[in-house]
Amino acid sequence: MDLTLLATPWLGTPLYLWLAFLSLVTLLLAFDLGVLHRKSEEISIRQSLVLSGGYIGVGLMFGGFVWWHIGAESGLAYLTGFVIEKTLALDNIFVIALIFSFFGIPRQYQHRALFWGILGVIVLRGIMIGAGATLVAEFHWILYLFAAFLVLTGVKMLFAEEKEPDLDKNPLVGFLRRHLNVTNQLEGDRFFVRKPLAGSGRIALHATPLFLALVLIEAADIVFAVDSVPAIFAITTDAFVIYTSNIFAILGLRALYFALAAMIHRFRYLKPALALVLVFIGSKVFVAELMGLDKFPAAISLGVTFALIAGGVVVSLLKTRQEAQSLPAANG
Q1: In this structure, are residues 63 and 245 in contact, taking their beta carbons and an 8 Å threshold?
Q2: 128 pairs with which residues across the strands?
Q3: Which residue windows are transmembrane per the record (predicted)?
C-alpha cells in the first residue's frame, strides 16, 4: 500500500487522521449495537449514565489527541465545539422525548430508533459541514453571516416564549401518513412490516410508528444543526475539528437520553445560558475583526462558553430544587 496516499490532505487534514476517526466511530457503534444492545430492552438510568460517561470520556480523549497531534489551538477549538454541541443536545433530548411520547414508543424500542438516528446524523452532519467548509474557503464573508445569525438566534432564544410543538399538526407527520401505508400500532422494534391493505386485502409494505419517529428525529437534528454548525464555524474553520467534535458529542446522545429524558425539566435555565453562548460566539467574530485579530483567543472562547453553560446548569438545579422543596410547604 502506498503510505504517501494516507498523508494526502483531505479538507485540510491528512487522510490517515480521518480514517482513524471513522474507524473509532465504527468500532464504538458496532460495540454498542452488537455487544451491549443486541436485544430490544429498556436501558436503566444507571446504564445510561455509565454509557454516557464512557462516550464523554472517549470524546475528551480524542480532544487530547487533537491537541497533541494538531496543536493547542485546535484542541481548544475541539473542546469548545464539543461542549456547545453536547449542551445543544439537551434541547434535542426534550424534542426526542416528545416524539417518542407522541407515537407511544416504549423505552425498550427507543434505543433502536436512536441508534439508526445517530447513523443518519453522522451522514447529514458530514454533508452540512463539508458544504459549509467549501463555502467558507471560497467566500470568507460567509463567516460574518454565520456570526450575525448566531447573535440573532441567541437574542430570539432569550425572549421567545416557550411553546411545546403540536406534532399532530406537524406537516412532516401529515406528509408521511398521506404517502405511506402506516400501521396503527407498533410491530415490535421493526420499522417496516408486510401486511394486508385495509379494504383490498393485498399484501403491501407498511411503515410502523417507530419509523415515523425515526424520520422526525432526523428532521429535528437538521433543525438543531442550523444552530450548532454555524456556532462551531464561528470558532474554527478546520473541517476535521468541526466534524469530529460534533460527532463525538452526538454519539453519547442516545445514552444520555435515557438518563435525562425523565428529568429534563430540571434544566429549565439552561436555555438562556445557551442563548448567551450563541450571542457570545457570534459576537466574538466581529470583536476579533474590530481588534485586528486573526482569531479570537481559543482559551477565552472555551472559558466563557464553559462558564455560561456551567452557570446555567447550577442555577437550574438549585432553582428547581428550591421549587420542589417549597411545594410540600405550600400544600401543607
Answers
A1: yes
A2: none
A3: 15-36, 48-68, 88-106, 113-135, 141-159, 203-226, 232-257, 269-287, 299-318
Which alpha helices (DSSP H) does 139-263 contain, by range? 142-159, 171-179, 209-233, 239-251, 253-260
Per the CB < 8 A criterion, the answer to whether 212 and 186 are in contact is no
CB of 252 closer than 8 Å to CB of 90: no
Element (H, E) at 308: helix 298-331
Secondary element (H or E) of residue 87: helix 72-103
CA angle 274, 280, 284 (to 5 degrees): 155
Would you state the pLDDT for residue 37? 54
Q: How is residue 268 annotated by DSSP?
A: T
Per the model's pLDDT, the better-predicted residue between 12 and 175 turns out to be: 175
Task: Supply the pLDDT for residue 153.
Answer: 86
Per residue in 256-292, pLDDT (tens digit) is 777 776 666 677 777 888 888 888 888 988 887 777 7
d(CA 150, CA 45): 34
- Please report, for residues 37, 53, 84, 216, the alpha-carbon distance to residue 115 in angstroms, rounded to integers and kept in the order given: 10, 17, 22, 14
Quick one: DSSP state of residue 194? E
Residue 69 three-state SS: helix
φ/ψ bin of 147: left (φ > 0), alpha (ψ from -120 to 50), beta (otherwise): alpha
Please report where in the chains the cell 482513524 appears, as a residue.
20
pLDDT of residue 331: 52
280 grid coordinates: 457570545
β 203-207/9-10 pair status: unpaired
Distance of CA 285 to the CA centre of its chain: 23
Quote the pLDDT of residue 162.
67
Q: Please report the pLDDT score of residue 86 as a whole number.
A: 83
pLDDT at site 98: 82
**pLDDT of 173 above 70:** yes
**Going along the chain, which residue ranges are E strands?**
9-10, 13-14, 192-196, 203-207
Predicted TM-score of the model (pTM): 0.81
Cβ-contact 155, 283 below 8 angstroms: no
Closest by CA to 219, choosing from 175, 267, 156, 157, is 175
